[in-house]
Specification:
mainly beta, Elongation Factor Tu (Ef-tu), domain 3, six-stranded antiparallel barrel
Length: 211
């Protein structure tokens, strides 16, 4: 589980094809501190499993499912990537609950500079738009952001100077793809409502207990 607070702007050093998969070698001195084989690191919002760690670098396998559902397939040597380690139990939840399970990709449609920030409009598939609400949370390339406006086929976010400087979102051009993970709570609520089952409070007492 992650929080969407990027710890480090890393760099792809190698992207080697392995048939229907790919092996990435990524530089990330901060996130590799204490990392071991089998640990998780989020790369542009995608939870990847560490295969090997050496001298501030790590390698990870990316399967066809992840390559097809995310923008990782477009990464090449030299590409900057947002990196985050999983949240430690008892740690501060600085952003929101992020699983690292990308739901799909969006496209940067417009960038509007402000005095000290920038408003970015992102287009997204209609199947994901229903989970995005004004003032709700969304993860864009692994960055936890608050939705400013939610439209039927797009949403906007405001990026503060820190986000512009320390994440890939400061350099994404119009037309660039971004990984999107919607709030998992919205998906669970939709599933429960679709099932038509009554949702009872676990604290509710049987009626007989009040007689």
């Amino acid at each position: 589980m992650f929080t969407g607070i990027v710890e480090e702007l890393g760099e792809v050093l190698e992207a080697a094809d392995r048939g229907d998969s790919r092996v990435f070698r990524v530089r990330g001195p901060l996130v590799t501190e204490g990392a071991r084989h089998g640990d998780s690191i989020a790369v542009n919002g995608v939870c990847l499993t560490v295969v090997d760690v050496h001298d501030g670098e790590f390698t990870a396998d990316v399967m066809a499912e992840s390559l097809g559902r995310t923008s990782l397939g477009a990464l090449t040597p030299g590409s900057p990537v947002n990196l985050e380690r999983p949240m430690a139990l008892g740690g501060r939840l600085g952003g929101h609950l992020v699983q690292g399970h990308v739901d799909g990709t969006g496209t940067v449609e417009e960038r509007t500079p402000g005095d000290h920030w920038e408003t970015v409009r992102v287009g997204l598939p209609a199947r994901l738009a229903r989970y995005v609400v004004e003032k709700g949370s969304i993860t864009v390339d692994g960055v936890s952001l608050t939705v400013v406006e939610a439209g039927p086929e797009h949403f906007t976010v405001s990026l503060i100077p820190t986000t512009l400087e320390l994440t890939t979102l400061g350099h994404k051009k119009v037309g660039a793809p971004v990984n999107l993970e919607v709030d998992v709570l919205a998906k669970y609520v939709e599933r429960l409502l679709a099932a038509g089952a009554p949702v009872a409070s676990p604290l509710a007492q049987p009626e007989e207990a009040h007689r």
